[in-house]
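#struct-help
A.M.: can someone run this one for me? Single chain, 208 residues.
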Amino acid sequence: LCDIYGCRSVFLVGQAWMVLWSVIAGFSDSGISLIVCRAMQGVGPAAFMPAAIGLLGGMYRPGPRKNLVFGVYSIFASVGFFSGIVIGALATKYLDWCWYFWIGAIIGGTGCVAGWFSIPSPDPNSQTGQRMDWLGTFTLVPALVLVVFAITASGSAPHGWQTPYIYCTFAAGFTFLLASIYTQGWVSTEPLLPAETFTTRYIKRLIV
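D.P.: on it. Structure tokens below:
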């Protein structure tokens, strides 16, 4: 989507999406509605985090300044994680649990507005004529979701890896993974993961 519509658009839409569902989450009146809101929130970071990487990669030339920018970006991943815990504790103690989401919405909304005025337009990352790899999407995404779910949920499953839904989701994810390798390598004309991605220096040892 960043290649088709530009990283700026995906970044702003992802931010706005998360802000919207953060506000809605604060009004949840049941556990199920809160779970749904949290799941929908996750779509926002899934959009704006890779878009942010694309924006930073396209704005700065290789060198010390680019290294510094990516270092700051990485640092704030940890800052955001721990500040979220602190804000959640303080909001629950002195305000109300719903303010945890509304404070997040305020922060996200501020970032969205700042991005609207500060990110250059038109987006230099957009590529006209790019097409979506739907085969890759419908094989690679389920593969990752199912395999990661099986691995992470196995620790809390009633019988560990012997729990039926654990080894069934893992087997399904592995099957989707094989299908995605086939589609990316031999079927898709514009694959999500082109083969030349893995020819980059040091990429294989990084993946391992």
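A.M.: thanks! The helical segments are 2-5, 7-26, 31-59, 64-94, 98-118, 134-153, 164-187, 203-207.
D.P.: also worth noting: The chain has eight helices and no strands.
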